[in-house]
Amino acid sequence: MSRSERSPLLLAGLLATAGVAHFAAPRSFDATVPRALPGSPRAWTYASGVAELALAAGVALPRTRKAAALATAAFFVGVFPANVKMAWDWRHRPTALKAAAVGRLPLQAPLVMWARSVANGTEGQA
Predict the structure, then answer these.
(1) In what residue span(s) does the Methylamine utilisation protein MauE domain sit (predicted)?
(2) What is the pLDDT averaged over residues 6-30?
(3) Which of 3, 34, 61, 82 has the highest local Cβ count within 10 Å?
(4) What is the Cα–Cα distance from 73 to 88, expressed in whole angstroms?
(5) Is the sign of the CA dihedral 43, 46, 48, 50 positive or negative?
């Protein structure tokens, strides 16, 4: 399997893993939901988990890959405020946790670019 064939599957795996994590350990995700959003944090946690699972399926399937990868890029941009909130909320935690929270922020850009590259790389699909 070539690198261009693996990339979408790796992205789908990342999304699926994150989606499952939203259901397996929702409390850690609840804490990152910005307070400005209406409704309960748990509803947003579950909704984002469902979205990640749906995006994973879409990216994994060649017929829906382009649209799902573009939606994934938008999703990564959309969840950035939650990562900012986490970094802010964790500013007084131990150094390792604080570094992990702050370190997530610059990772969003490569994730967005990865999703866009999957969308633009036709990799021989119709």
Answers:
(1) 9-78
(2) 95
(3) 82
(4) 23
(5) negative
**What phi and psi values does residue 47 have, to the nearest 5 degrees?**
-65, -40
Contact call for residues 15 and 56 (beta carbons, < 8 A) = yes
Q: CB under 8 Å, gap of 24 or more: what pairs does 42-46 form?
A: 46/22
Each residue's pLDDT tens digit, 94-118: 999 889 889 989 999 999 999 999 9
CA dihedral 118→65→8→5, nearest 10 degrees, is -90
CA distance linking residue 14 with residue 108, whole number of Å? 13
User: Which residue carries 């599957």 as its tokens?
Assistant: 9
Tell me: the pLDDT tens digits for 29-58?
898 888 888 999 999 999 999 999 999 999
Q: In the Cβ-directed half-sphere of 52, how many Cα atoms lie within 13 Å?
A: 21
pLDDT of 34: 85
Sign of the CA dihedral running 85, 89, 91, 93? negative
**Distance from C-alpha of 72 to C-alpha of 70, rounded to nearest angstrom:** 5
